[in-house]
Design a protein that fits this description.
alpha/beta; Aspartate Aminotransferase, domain 1; seven-stranded mixed beta sheet
Length: 396
């Protein structure tokens, strides 16, 4: 068919890796008049809200809330523990470590960057070499991206903690869980993470605009040694406010808080262990279908080893830069929006699937069915039986 009619009417499916699909309960909670910010339910709900955020992060320590995206939380975390002239180590396996490192450079820190490319996880021996060489402990923090949303690589945070401990290196372990929190297993206290940043628009299923920095006593001790921290980024009054406005250094993100409350209720009603298991099963179904398509040689999963793949996002490449045309077909003809090839040199060949947060089995099958349809329409070679293989995973 030369000029197919569009079948994109109806509810669109935004299957990019964040902002993620928002539950109706979140949207309904936000659909209300502005509340009183000086007295009443908004003020009263904050202790439970912060408690339930810490439950998602698996920490008994502190959380500071910012009206900011993930980039804002990068700066917030750095501003509280890294002084100008101090050094951070940044092991990069995708675009977002580079972004965090650039943020560190912008606030006056020195950056030691180890680039592992866009399809490989950390090489622990190379990181160990950098830490061993740091005999005077000039490295004050390690910027560890748990899941890089561009490459879909999932890095081993516990192994990095063990490495720091084995070498008796005092650097803070700082984790970026913007793409992974509420999707991939993450346990801040058990894994020995000192500071963690995330945002609300992915696994936390709330419209973009609010970010979080979690930090433990070791990170707080470093904060106490800082010569200065700007009033806005300072996490101390946000984590231990005497007055409500100090949570946010001013007016609260009122409707985001109502939406976040609803999202946290959904997460804890399901249970974190089930949330993680659900994301793993859905990701496995996607990988199984993609590995079947890849048998033709035209499609490639960016991360070869399943052990290093995120359960929240999958990055794929098509030969001959056909990633962008495929995305354009699914969006204009089917109403399915896939993620762009972010951070890749030949980005038109790549596309990404977001399968994070408020996602279930039939939604995953819709993504896969849309991709299969686009590949058929564009005569892209593919292995047969991909949807059946995915269905078999989901039916176990």
């Amino acid at each position: 068919m030369t000029n197919p009619i569009s079948l994109a009417q109806g509810r669109e499916y935004l299957a990019i890796p964040g902002p993620s699909v928002m539950p109706d309960a979140v949207l309904q909670a936000m659909h209300r008049p502005s509340p009183n910010i000086y007295d009443g339910e908004l003020i009263e709900m904050m202790p439970a809200l912060t408690r339930d955020l810490r439950r998602v992060a698996r920490t008994e320590h502190n959380v500071a809330i910012y009206i900011a995206n993930g980039h804002g939380t990068w700066e917030a975390a750095l501003s509280n523990v890294i002084a100008p002239g101090e050094t951070v180590l940044a092991p990069a396996s995708g675009r977002f470590t580079h972004g965090w490192a650039e943020m560190a450079d912008a606030i006056g820190a020195k950056v030691d960057l180890i680039d592992f490319g866009t399809s490989s996880p950390w090489d622990m021996e190379r990181i160990a070499d950098a830490l061993r060489a740091d005999t005077d402990h000039r490295i004050k923090g390690v910027l560890a991206v748990h899941v890089d949303t561009s490459s879909s690589i999932r890095n081993d945070i516990p192994a990095l903690r063990a490495l720091l401990d084995d070498l008796n290196h005092p650097a803070l372990l700082m984790a970026d869980c913007i793409a992974s929190l509420g999707c991939d297993r993450f346990e801040m206290d058990a894994w020995g993470v000192d500071a963690m940043v995330t945002a609300c628009q992915k696994g936390l299923m709330t419209p973009a605009g609010v970010g979080f920095v979690f930090f433990n006593d070791k990170a707080q001790a470093k904060r106490a040694e800082m010569p200065r921290v700007s009033q806005y980024w300072d996490w101390q009054p946000r984590a231990k406010p005497e007055l409500f406005y100090q949570y946010f250094n001013g007016t609260a993100p009122t409707h985001h808080l109502y939406g976040l409350r609803a999202a946290l209720d959904l997460i804890h009603a399901e249970g974190m262990e089930h949330v993680w298991a659900r994301h793993e099963r859905l990701a496995t179904a996607i990988w199984t279908a993609c590995e079947t398509w890849a048998e033709s040689g035209a499609l490639h999963l960016n991360v070869a080893d399943r052990a290093h793949r995120s359960h929240a996002v999958t990055t794929l490449r098509l030969t001959d830069e056909r990633g962008t045309p495929l995305r354009q077909f699914t969006e204009t003809q089917l109403g399915l929006t896939l993620g762009i090839g972010l951070g890749m040199e030949d980005w038109n060949g790549y596309f990404r699937l977001g399968h994070m947060g408020h996602v279930n089995g039939q939604m995953v099958m819709a993504i896969l069915g849309g991709i299969e349809t686009a590949m058929a329409a564009q005569n892209i070679p593919r292995g047969k039986g991909a949807l059946e293989a995915a269905a078999a995973v989901l039916s176990q």
